[in-house]
Design goal:
The chain has about 270 residues and is an alpha/beta fold. The chain has one domain: Alpha-Beta Barrel (TIM Barrel). It is built from ten helices and ten strands. The strands form two sheets. An eight-stranded parallel beta sheet has the order 3-4-5-6-7-8-9-10. Helix 1 crosses helix 2 and helix 3 crosses helix 4. The termini are far apart.
Length: about 270
């Protein structure tokens, strides 16, 4: 079954489901995980400079034999590289490591106050030069984006934030949609922290699915691009086997109430 896609605000098509490759304990696992994901039908790979695995992603894509044009690749500029000139240099290094001429999506990883505008100006140049098909931000909440838009000439195509029922802030998603920014979520499975939640287990049993599949499906049904991370073949296959069922409106509403601010990353609301 083909993975559905969404159309970004500049007309670029992006899959709704992909693989996150946030730095695992063993860097050697990355290439194999990406190869398994591509075998499972994945066509969206999300990496970052900070994960230190862009070369492994490139190796996996080369080994897969899948045309480059069929794979959507995201990477991000890390905090230490922010600022206009440094961001341009960091982007060039990412291109080199990924063995690419063009990246599908380039993101600002975190909102670093003293560099926000200059970093975004660098992304706008990268986009204008045709070296990124889309640009966006990560871990930005409405106050950060409002500030960015006071000087930005281009509205971000994507805002990637932590997104699960346990960190669900509907006002953030509504804000993005009102600004025509596609929301994308990472850590949909909360790195296993909620696998024993009896509320989630009961729903999974009702649908005959795993708790992880319920969490991935919940994200997709919210229209949020989601990038579950795994380096295990069976789990990767399971994560992509979520297109043969739907969660009812009633149960989606129920899952929306699971919020308890459980997170695997910092809360952007604490960043001025």
């Amino acid at each position: 079954m083909k993975i559905p896609s969404t159309t970004l605000n500049n007309g670029v098509e992006m899959p709704l489901l992909g693989l996150g490759v946030h730095a695992p304990k063993n860097i050697s696992e990355v290439q194999q995980a990406v190869e398994w994901a591509l075998e499972a039908g994945c066509r969206l790979i999300d990496t970052a400079t900070a994960y230190n695995n862009e070369r492994e992603v490139a190796d996996a894509i080369r080994e897969s034999g899948i045309p480059r044009s069929d794979i959507f690749i995201t990477t991000k500029v890390w905090n230490d590289d922010q600022g206009y000139t440094r961001t341009l240099r960091a982007f060039n290094r990412s291109l080199e490591r990924l063995r690419l001429d063009v990246i599908d999506l380039y993101l600002i990883h975190w909102p670093i106050k003293e560099h926000r505008h200059e970093t975004w100006r660098a992304l706008e140049k990268i986009y204008a030069d045709g070296r990124a098909r889309a640009i966006g931000v990560s871990n930005h909440y409405p106050a950060h984006i409002d500030e960015l838009l006071t000087e930005a000439r281009i509205i971000p195509a994507i805002n990637q934030v932590e997104f699960s029922p346990y960190s669900y802030l509907p006002e953030v998603i509504t804000y993005c949609r009102d600004k025509n920014i596609q929301p994308e979520g990472y850590a949909p499975m909360v790195r296993g922290k909620k696998r024993d939640d009896p509320k989630l287990i009961a729903l999974a049993e009702k649908y005959g699915k795993s708790t992880y599949q319920m969490l991935v499906r919940w994200s997709i049904q919210h229209g949020v691009v989601t990038i579950p991370k795994s380096v295990k073949r069976e789990r990767i296959q399971e994560n992509f086997n979520v297109l043969d069922f739907s969660i009812s409106d009633e149960d989606m509403t129920l899952m929306d109430t699971f919020y308890d601010n459980t997170r695997v990353a910092d809360d952007p609301r604490t960043i001025a």
